[in-house]
Structures are given as C-alpha cells and as structure tokens.
Amino acid sequence: MDKAFLFSLSVLIPAVIGLIRFRHVDDSYRIFIVFLWLGFIAEIANRLLIVTMKTNAPSWNIYNVLEFLILMTLFRKWQVWKGRERWYLPFLIFSLLIWIADVFIFGNIKQFNSYFGIYYCFIIVMFAITNLNKQITTEKGDIIRSPQFIICIGLTIFFTYRLFVEVSLMPVFSISRDFFQRVFDIQVYVNLLVNLIYAIAILCLPRKRIYINSF
Amino acid sequence: MSPQEKDLYKFILIIAVVLGIIIAYFIFSIIRQQRRTLSLNQEKILAEITTLENERRRIASDLHDEIGPLLSAVKLQINSVESEDSNDKMLIDKSSSQIDEIISKMREISNNLMPNTLVRKGLVSALEEFTGTLNKTNQLRINFSADPEVKLSKEKEVNIYRMVQEIIHNTIKHAKATELNIRLQTKDNDLILITEDNGIGFNFDTRLKENSGLGLRNLSSRTEIMGGTHHFYSQPGKGTKYVFELPLG
Ligand SMILES: Nc1ncnc2c1ncn2[C@@H]1O[C@H](COP(=O)(O)OP(=O)(O)OP(=O)(O)O)[C@@H](O)[C@H]1O
Ligand SMILES: [Mg+2]
C-alpha cells in the first residue's frame, strides 16, 4: 500500500465516529457524515479501478460531481442560500452543465478533466468562507467548539490546497511523473490534516441531553 | 525531475507554505472577531435589560410609595364626611369602594412591574405566590417545585422570574395545555430550570424567525447575559419542554 492510499484512509476516523453518533445528531450533520462515507467509498473505488482498468479517472470524475452536490445540499441546510433561494436550482443546473461539458464534450470520462474540478473547488471555498463569516455574528457560544465552524475550516483548507494543486498540475504544462507525484503529495498531507479536523468536528457535535422530570 | 522542475517545485512549496500562513491568519482573525462581537452583544443586552428592570422598579415603587398613601388619605377623608342625606351617603360609599378598587388595581400593576415578594423574600417565594394566584383563576394547573438550597444574586432572581413568567404566559396564551410543570434545581455549580407542558407544542427555530413576539427572544437574551445555555424540546403536537442551565457563581 502506498502512502497516498494509506493517508486517504484516515477519512475512516471521522466517518466511523460519525456513524456511531449518527442517530443522535442533527440532519445537516448527517449529510456531512454521508459525505465522509462517500469519500471513503470513492477511495476504495479508485483502488479497484486502478487494479482493474489501470486508471481511476471514471470514479474520480463521478465522485467529483457527487461530492459537489452533497456539499451544496449541506450548505443549503446551513442556510447559506437564505434570501437567494430561487437561484439555487439554476446554479445547480449551470454547475452540472459545466461538469457534462468538461467530462463528456471537451474531455472524456476515462481521463482526468480539470476544469470542473477547478470550478467546484473554487465554489466550495467561497461557500465555506461565507459560512465562516456568518458564524461570526450568529454563533452564541465558543466558536472553536462549533462543529459548523470546524467543518468549514476543514473545507476551506482542503479545497484551497486542492485548487492550488489542481492548478499547478493543469494539463497545459508538460511535466514529469516525479514532479506530478511530489506536488500531489502536498494534497495527500493536507488530506490527512483535514480528516483529523473533521474528526474533532464530529466529536464536538452536540449530544442530545435527556432530562427526566422528577414529578 | 529536471533542474527547471526542481526550481518550480521549490517555488510551489513556498507558495503552499505562504497559503498556509494566510489561512491560519484568516482563521485566527475570525475567532478573534467572533469573541469581540459576542462580548459586545452581551454588554448591549445587559445594558438594555438593566435599564428596563431599573425603570420598572422605579415606576413600581413610585406608584406604591407615592400614589398609594395619597389614595389612602383621600379615602380616609371621604369616609370622614358625615351627611344625613341618603343620596350623599350612597355617593360616599360608591366613591370609597371605587378608591379601594383603584388601590388594589394599583397594587396589582406595581406588583406586576416588580413583585414585592421577589424583592423581600426571594425567587422561590415569589414564584410560589405567582403560580398560586394563577392556579386559583386559571384552567391551567401549574406544579412548581424548587430545591430548598437555591440561592442567587438579586439580578439573576429577577431574570429567572421574568423567564418563568414569560413561559407561563406563553403556555396560557398559546399551548392549550392543562398542565405545566416547573422545577428549579441545583446540579454541581449550575441552577437548572426545567419547564414542561402537555400542550400543542411548536417548532422553536422557525417560530423564532417568523414571529414578531418578544417573548422567546427575551428568553434567549436573559439566558445569554447570565452566561447560561438553553435547550428546547418541542414538536408540534407533543408539548413543550425547556431546559435552562444557569451558572450559580
Ligand atoms: N408553550 C407553547 N406552546 C405552543 N406554542 C407556543 C408556546 N410558546 C410559544 N409558542 C408559540 O411561539 C410564538 C412566539 O412566542 P413569543 O412569546 O415569542 O411571542 P408572543 O407570546 O406571541 O408575544 P409576546 O411574548 O411578545 O407577548 C407564539 O406566537 C406561539 O405561537
Ligand atoms: Mg409570549
């Protein structure tokens, strides 16, 4: 097993804790736990495809759009779209069109297409930052223990670096395999860090308290 | 890697580190800003509530201490008027009983503004008295119980009294409940206030946003200035339960 795969399995830490707590947490955080498991499934699918087809591009392309959709649902639950609700659907359709164009028209599903990847990393960083800013005024307790805050920090870090790596490795530059691997390693380490951040967020999810009235 | 690629790789690493520093600073500044906003907000609410309660106290004591004696004096004077005429007598009796009514109305108003029992004997007695009077006149049955060792500062007592008052009013006004349980207890270093009704219930979050009422908002504000937390368990059709945890210190 190589380092990238081993590190990416760290998603199991928050995912398993999330699964244990799944029944006791709020709807929006359930979406997040599904997001973690989707990440894990994608890792496994990538592995299987590499072994069988020598490339994980198909699962990677599909995972991108699924991840995008699930994170958009999450942000909608967190009311990032509040007051602009009617733009939500047009926005989703627009994004899907970009994906289709990138994967089926300009590229093809058996190769790594980076335009949609760049677009959606950018969008997610924007939403995460918007939500972080919203938390400044709405969070009534200690913000560093707010799961929404921690998750958005994780998303911001991960997708900023992913965007950075993705842009550095754009197919417009011709690069060697070794160079690719080294730059890609940046994302591998960031991935590990972010999964640990997610685990903290999941541990911070408020537990439902039960009080029994004594009369 | 070719020499150019080596240089490029170094360059990319440097950018990655700079990016990390920027993100770290960004996170740090958000945390700092949120703490500032929070404490500013709390000071504002505290100032508002303190002004409100001081004003109420002043009006209550002005009514009670200044108008009260005057009215009593008027009543005494009227009663001392002697007349043989039966019409006059009737008028005197009527005026006298009206003055009695004014006095008791005024007591009620003054008591609503700032309960005498709350000032003199503390929270638990005041709530016992308040729920006692309501139980005599209302359909709703209120069961109030408190740990004997509940001890609080005057400001907190007023806040908690107002919160319970609002919850009771809401239950009477909206809940269609037949029973309301209220319990005050101490746990470790917290005072815990639990209220539970068997009414129609409601969705707290959506109601707070769409409703123009001040009641729920005040519940949150008063909890916040005492540094406490609140939990609401309510679903349409399943009654309403509030749990407040308020630090004692
Ligand atoms: N115990 C309860 N059971 C059912 N519904 C409730 C209960 N408490 C509050 N509500 C609902 O929540 C809404 C908001 O209550 P809130 O106290 O904020 O406003 P209000 O009572 O209408 O006005 P105000 O308190 O300012 O006089 C109410 O209109 C009512 O529909
Ligand atoms: Mg009310």
Topology:
The complex is a heterodimer of chains A (215) and B (249).
Chain A: H1 3-8, H2 12-21, H3 27-53, H4 57-77, H5 88-106, H6 115-138, H7 147-168, H8 177-204
Chain B: H1 3-80, H2 86-113, H3 116-121, H4 123-137, E1 141-146, H5 154-175, E2 179-187, E3 190-197, H6 204-210, H7 215-225, E4 229-234, E5 240-247
Parallel strand pairs in B: 1-2
Antiparallel strand pairs in B: 2-3, 3-5, 4-5
Structural overview:
The complex is a heterodimer of chains A (215) and B (249). Helix content of chain A is 73%, strand content 0%. In chain A, helix 2 packs parallel to helix 8 (177-204) and helix 4 (57-77) runs antiparallel to helix 5. Chain A has 8 helices and no strands. Chain A is an all-alpha fold and 215 residues long. Mean pLDDT of chain A is 89; it is low at 210-215. With 249 residues, chain B is of the alpha+beta class. Chain B has helices spanning 3-80, 86-113, 116-121, 123-137, 154-175, 204-210, 215-225, and strands at 141-146, 179-187, 190-197, 229-234, 240-247. In chain B, helix 5 links the parallel strand 1 (141-146) and strand 2. In chain B, helix 5 runs antiparallel to helix 7 (215-225). Chain B is elongated and about 125 Å long. The mean pLDDT of chain B is 89. Classes of the chains: A mainly alpha (215), B alpha+beta (249). At the A-B interface, helix 6, helix 7 and helix 8 of A face helix 1 and strand 3 of B.
Summarize the structure.
The complex is a heterodimer of chains A (215) and B (249). Chain A is an all-alpha fold.
